[in-house]
């Protein structure tokens, strides 16, 4: 299990040009802690998580990694973004996919647009993946795109398999942000099609019964559980280790 310090940061980032270049530096206090504070204990915890996931490839195919939580607002999107950056630091090409079609956050975290994305492909409007370069070297984003009328139906479509196949062909790792598993069925639809799932738990915030429900829902669909990421842990920075 990975433990991470509290994230009290603003999510505002430097403006990004259309070619993916940063127009200015990432300010201190960004939720992209891997870029804003690369020497921090939290950044090291993300690197440890990335290293352990790579090590686990000996036993499990983790090219596609899903990230979910028990409830909204528990840090799954921040974890997805920082994990993607940590993996890319190792020289890997990474695609982050925002499959939370209800409350997408990855485009905001990376400071990018969300005019087209995953939903456009799922609903048949696009055949290619409308990937965007991010401020993080080696990381591209497939944002959620416009919210569909029925997010669950869109995710259950065969087009999602096409999306994942394209993403696997274009990246070493694909990290997928999913809607909370404790409250919605979206993650259960996604999980069996991914190499494994991470469950994000917020210390002092996530209710135990909801966390149990989230895990049970994923296990019910035979999802491969890669582990739990515990966030918002308070205390001495020296204690934040994998």
Summarize the model shown.
By secondary structure, the chain is α/β, with parallel strands linked by helices. It has helices spanning 33-36, 41-55, 76-89, 106-110, 118-122, 151-156, 159-170, 186-190, 208-220; strands at residues 2-3, 64-69, 94-98, 132-133, 139-142, 173-177, 196-202, 225-231. 33% of the residues lie in helices and 16% in strands.
Could you explain the architecture of this structure?
Mean pLDDT is 84; it is low at 7-28 and 236-242. The protein has a single domain (2-239), classed as P-loop containing nucleotide triphosphate hydrolases (Rossmann fold, 3-Layer(aba) Sandwich). Helix content is 33%, strand content 16%. It is of the alpha/beta class. Strands 1-8-7-2-6-3-5-4 form an eight-stranded mixed beta sheet, with helices on both faces. The chain has helices at residues 33-36, 41-55, 76-89, 106-110, 118-122, 151-156, 159-170, 186-190, 208-220, and strands at residues 2-3, 64-69, 94-98, 132-133, 139-142, 173-177, 196-202, 225-231.
Blueprint (SSEs and pairs):
Blueprint (H helix, E strand, L loop, with lengths): L1 E2 L29 H4 L4 H15 L8 E6 L6 H14 L4 E5 L7 H5 L7 H5 L9 E2 L5 E4 L8 H6 L2 H12 L2 E5 L8 H5 L5 E7 L5 H13 L4 E7 L11
Parallel strand pairs: 1-8, 2-6, 2-7, 3-5, 3-6, 7-8
Antiparallel strand pairs: 4-5
